[in-house]
Amino acid sequence: MALNKVEICGVETSTLPTLSHEDMQALMRRAHEGDGEARKALIQANLRLVLSVIQRFHNRGENMDDLFQVGCIGLMKGLDNFDMSLNVRLSTYCVPMIIGEIRRYLRDNNAVRVSRSMRDTAYRALRTREALSTQSGREPTTAEIAKEMKLPEEEVVLSLEAIQDPVSLFDPVYQNNGDAVYLVDQLRDERVSEEEWVRDLSINHAMAHLQDRERHIIRQRYFQGRTQMEVADEIGISQAQVSRLEKAALQQMRKYI
Fold first, then answer.
1. Using CA atoms, how far apart are residues 249 and 218, in angstroms rounded to an integer?
2. Is 200 helix (H, G, I), strand (E, B) or coil?
3. pTM for this one?
4. Helix (H, G, I), strand (E, B), or coil: what is residue 231?
5. From residue 202, how far is each of 82, 141, 197, 208, 257 by CA, in Å?
6. What distance in Å separates the CA atoms of residue 80 and residue 34, rounded to the nearest whole number?
7. Do residues 95 and 36 lie in contact, with contact meaning Cβ atoms separated by under 8 Å?
8. Where residue 193 falls among pLDDT bands split at 50, 70, 90?
9. Is the Cβ–Cβ distance between 219 and 231 less than 8 Å?
10. Which residues, in sequence order, are CB contacts of 170 under 8 Å at separation 6+?
11. What DSSP string runs through 18-44?
């Protein structure tokens, strides 16, 4: 999706106006005084900003037109609440508003439903965290947030976890010499230890040196859990022959394990 030529929601972004900082300031003053045309011009001039933000969410499987419209709502909220007395650029103020609106939309439309009370607690916790961070100049702990909110720490933790956006195991974490490194590459499978993995490799290597019938017997006996009699009936030999072949196969495998 190129930023200079994209049509989304019927808007050809390459034709959108580009305003200077001074023009933005002038339009903002008029919009805050109730000038509807100035507000409309501000919105049009910042649609590219919305487009650049929604690209962060392009891999969520959501309709980009829908995200663009939601982002425009965030933009309008940012424009309406922007404080011109602050020494902050309009785009710097509006981007978090756009992102916040999109994240709320994604959370509310998530297949995993989170109760309204839990979401409210999470939003209160986020506001409290921001306030405490401003006061202390550092990131507050969960215990400090819970104490300020007069809630159990466990409740705050659960509410914040509930509103976290789901992450795909195949989301890229960073680029390594042009090759993407994915989240799944950074996770350890605790169910299988390194010793078990090496053992399995050794067994597979040893079985590769068996004849087809011996390999089949070992697979049926030790991987499928079948008895010697069942294996004998399947391949059409006696149980005693299966026993001899099995012992010979195990002895052969020990050379390679």
1. 8
2. helix
3. 0.42
4. helix
5. 66, 48, 9, 10, 6
6. 10
7. no
8. low
9. no
10. 182, 183, 184
11. ---HHHHHHHHHHHHTT-HHHHHHHHH
The residues pairing with 16 across neighbouring beta strands, listed in sequence order, are none
Distance set, CA 170 to CA 11, 121, 174, 182 (Å): 32, 30, 12, 5
Summarised one tens digit per residue, pLDDT across range 47-79 is: 888 888 888 777 667 788 888 889 899 999 888
Residue 102 backbone zone (phi > 0: left; psi -120 to 50: alpha; other: beta): alpha
Nearest partner of 84 among 14, 25, 41, 152, judged by Cα:
25
Burial (CB < 10 A; 0-12, 13-18, 19+), residue 99, is middle
DSSP for 48-100? HHHHHHHGGGGGG---HHHHHHHHHHHHHHHHHH--TTSS--HHHHHHHHHHH
Give the span between the Cα atoms of 216 and 40, in whole angstroms: 75
The mean of the pLDDT values for the chain is 79
Distances (CA, A) of 125 to 52, 57, 94, 161, 198: 28, 24, 22, 11, 47
The 10s digit of each residue's pLDDT in 105-156 is: 887 776 556 677 887 888 889 889 888 988 888 888 988 999 999 999 888 8
254 contact partners, CB below 8 Å, separation of at least 6: 206
Percent of the chain whose predicted confidence (pLDDT) is above 70: 77
Predicted confidence (pLDDT) at residue 1 exceeds the cutoff of 50: no
In Å, how far from its chain's centre is CA 94?
Answer: 23
d(CA 253, CA 202): 9
The arithmetic mean of pLDDT across residues 238-253, rounded, is 89
Residue-wise pLDDT for 204-236, tens only, equals 888 888 989 999 999 888 888 888 888 888 899
